[in-house]
Design goal:
Blueprint lengths: L2 H11 L5 H21 L7 E3 L9 E5 L17 E2 L8 E4 L4 H11 L11 H15 L2 E9 L2 E8 L3 H8 L9 H14 L3 E9 L2 E8 L5
Antiparallel strand pairs: 1-2, 1-7, 2-4, 3-4, 5-6, 6-8, 7-8
């Protein structure tokens, strides 16, 4: 089984996770992603793509250029390198680390956010709080939406991995499984493509700032 497979296995089936142990398990995969980011000199924050027909688990798109376009028609489940005649559409497409956790949420709520009733933000907050409490990794989730800006915040129990990813400037490009499932679930709830503007940790509270991308092809 690959490193990614082990990560998903741990996060999908374990009900009580030692976050420090998971941090070590993630190290190899994070190192691989870091090398890709350096090799392609990626400067921009990651773009969160919600689950869709040809990308059932969603994805994190890392554009090669700071001025870019998101063309969903050339992305699917098998895509790693997003290739296009237009340089502005090229980049990497990676599976979000939070996709295994998202499956736990789907089991909990029984479906995706499809009906108008499920669009109530209270359902979203309940789901995210349930997940963090279940895994004993955080609590007190808040989601604020103002125009095209979305801010997620939550209290984290152990921010060791957060500090490392922020130090290496990886957080906003390719978030860890915890932040990963939060941004993926919010993108699914809004049914919008979201750019990660910033992820920061202050006094054991994580703040994730996202921006809705309107110009999607």
């Amino acid at each position: 089984m690959t490193v990614v497979g082990w990560i998903l296995l741990i996060f999908t089936f374990s009900r009580c996770i030692d976050y420090n142990i998971v941090s070590h398990v993630l190290s190899d995969y994070i190192e691989l992603v870091k090398r890709w980011i350096r090799a392609f000199d990626i400067k921009t924050g990651g773009v969160v793509i919600p689950p869709r027909e040809n990308l059932r688990d969603g994805g994190i798109y890392l554009p090669f250029h700071e001025r870019y376009k998101v063309n969903l028609s050339i992305m699917d489940y098998n895509t790693l390198l997003v290739n296009s005649d237009s340089r502005d559409e090229r980049g990497l497409l990676l599976p979000p680390l939070g996709r295994g956790l998202r499956k736990l949420l789907i089991e909990y709520r029984g479906s995706s956010y499809t009906s108008p009733e499920e669009r109530d933000i209270s359902y979203l907050l309940e789901d995210l709080e349930y997940l963090l409490n279940l895994l004993e990794i955080g609590s007190d989730v808040k989601v604020e939406i103002e125009g095209d800006t979305v801010v997620i915040s939550y209290r984290i129990e152990d921010h060791t991995l957060c500090k490392r990813l922020q130090r290496e400037d990886l957080c906003r490009k390719y978030p860890c499984p915890v932040c990963g499932v939060l941004v993926l679930t919010v993108a699914e709830f809004l049914n919008k493509v979201l750019k990660i503007e910033e992820i920061k940790n202050e006094n054991k509270r994580v703040f994730i700032k996202l921006k809705v991308i309107r110009d999607v092809l």
